Amino acid sequence: MAMQSRNSSLRNMMKTQYNEQHMGAAYGPYGQMTQAPQVQTMRIDDVIVRTVALVGATFVAAMLTWSMVSNAFATNAAGDIVITDQSAFSTAMTLGTVGAFIGLGVILFSMFKPITNPIICFVYAIGQGLLLGGVSAFFEARWPGIVVNALLGTVLVFAGMLALYKFRILKNSPMFTKVMVGAGFGIFALIAVNFVASMFGADLGLFASDGNANTLQWIIAIGITLWAAFSFILDFDMIEQSAAMGAPKKFAWAGAFGLTAGLIFLYWNLLRLLSYFQGD
């Protein structure tokens, strides 16, 4: 029984892969085929190479907006952040906003169809990078050193989860999948409601913007970060299954997209969580 990933692109990848394999039955048994299908199959190495490329594109795009605003912030005597270069800040904000909407659009699209087009994957990575750079620069100006710690934490958590999966210390199971998928829907709803409320100027108190978090905000931040970490187990399992089943090579992009989106989401939440430790 195939497990479902919390990443909709990877889930759809398995469904499409299943359909393509069964459509191949129309050719008849291998010995009776008039022309054997020539399809390159996906390997785990293919996913790794593509993931590195997408993460690299995200980093380069992030450095663009980071360089724009890294010197556009200053701290006044009260410890508040002030903008010293409005032009650079406005440009970075525009790019970040465009990146945010691009990211949202691609994620919504991935819920209905696996992302196997490398152009769409790179558009997502670059868009998220443009947003990451400006926001990270603001956090760094407020709490020096926090970005390096968040990046290091992201790498260590990802490596740790990969090791736990590789040595079968943590395994996917029907119950694990149900819990993670159910929690994922809850987290998505929580973030969506908070986003809509913020557009109308309402603060639901779910996330602390100044680093001074209350008990509820701590629980939410820790819970989402743990979910982001453990969700990699589902993605690793899905990629491994797809490679073992001989999925077409193009689906390596779907796997890379899922891992890249997961890394970005984990970084965001580690950045927020670390800011809570800087509160008064």
Report strand order across the widest sheet.
Answer: 1-2
How much helix is in the residues? 55-70%
SSE pattern, N- to C-terminal: HHEEHHHHHH
Q: Which consecutive residue ranges, at least 5 long each, have pLDDT under 50?
A: 1-6, 21-31
Counting DSSP H or I runs of 4 or more residues, the number of helices is: 8
Report how far the terminal alpha carbons are from each other: 50 Å
Morphology call: globular
Largest sheet: 2 strands, antiparallel
Give the mean pLDDT: 86
Strand content: under 5%
What is the β-strand count?
A: 2
Domain unit count: 1
Class based on secondary structure composition and strand pairing: mainly alpha
Radius of gyration: 21 Å
What order do the helices and strands come in, and which of them pair?
Elements lengths: L7 H16 L20 H26 L3 E3 L5 E3 L2 H25 L7 H25 L3 H21 L7 H26 L15 H30 L7 H26 L3
Antiparallel strand pairs: 1-2
Structure description:
The chain is mainly alpha-helical and 280 residues long. It has one domain. It is built from eight helices and two strands; from the N terminus they run ααββαααααα. It has helices spanning 8-23, 44-69, 86-110, 118-142, 146-166, 174-199, 215-244, 252-277; strands at 73-75, 81-83. Strands 1-2 form a two-stranded antiparallel ribbon. α1 (8-23) runs parallel beside α7 (215-244), α6 packs across α7 (215-244) and α7 runs antiparallel to α8 (252-277). It is globular and about 65 Å long. It starts with 7 loop residues before the first helix and ends with a helix. Residues 1-6 and 21-31 have low confidence and may be disordered.
